[in-house]
Amino acid sequence: MDEKLAPYSLLLHLLILLGGACSGNGSVEMDGQTLSHSKAHDHTAHADMRIEQVHSHSSPHMHHMDSAVIVFFFIEDLKQGNTIPIYFPRRDPNSSPHLLSKEEADSIPFSSQEIDYLLHFYSFPQGSPQATAMEDTLRECEAKPIKGETKLCATSLESMLDFTRTILGSETETNVLSTTHLAHSNILLQKYEVMGIEEIQAPKQVSCHTMPYPYAVFYCHYQESKSRVFKVSLTGENGDKVDAVAVCHMDTSHWGRNHVSFKVLGIEPGSSPVCHFFPADNFVYVPSTTSPQA
């Protein structure tokens, strides 16, 4: 491993130990852990509506809105003093899947064509929630990337670092940005007041998201279209304090019309930038030479 990568590799390892797995909507349980399974307006009124829709299930855009998808917001919402509804999951690090070494990961097939073998290997019955989660993860990992996207489902630390070096440059020193909970209640979905905003000027960034699987799998991807990265200080109405990472995708015209963010925000592809917060076990790689902007 390159010496330049060693410092943030240690940080990444700590993040992984704290990580869980989530993707999409709904929920399944795997190895004892509950996993989320499964992206001109009056923004303040719409934000309030997002929480009401979750509780009442009366959304005009979604018949049943899972609270876990309330992470999307408009870039105009990102103003000091503004209030945004956000769902931040809580996951038990003791029951979270851990990232395997490359040697371990390479010894186990990671392919939908081997699903029968994998279900037998992990003793998951066909059609069980665990089996469904595995099948969905493999299907998403094998799906063709959207236009302008480069992606990898990393099954080991080494594969993740190799992918990051490929995108950001083999000689580029890298920082890892993650969401940190400074104080939190048991309320997962609540309104947060924006206390401070810091934009990270990153010409390129790699985002990594946890996926439901028996061991830790991260969907890491880079999109050629412009994105903006922010660190946001938040205070929740229930006393929670969060230093959160958020990414805003400035061009969504190439996204699928059924992307969950459009349903949550009530917009069409390409009509508005789409921003989203990262849970604590997801993270963003950026070049360490980038400078924060107030």
From TrEMBL:
It holds the Pfam family BURP. Residues 72-288 form the BURP domain. It comes from the Eukaryota. Residues 1-26 form the signal peptide. InterPro entries: BURP (IPR044816), BURP_dom (IPR004873). Keywords: Signal. SMART domains: BURP (SM01045). PANTHER family: BURP DOMAIN PROTEIN USPL1-LIKE. This is BURP domain-containing protein. It comes from Buddleja alternifolia.
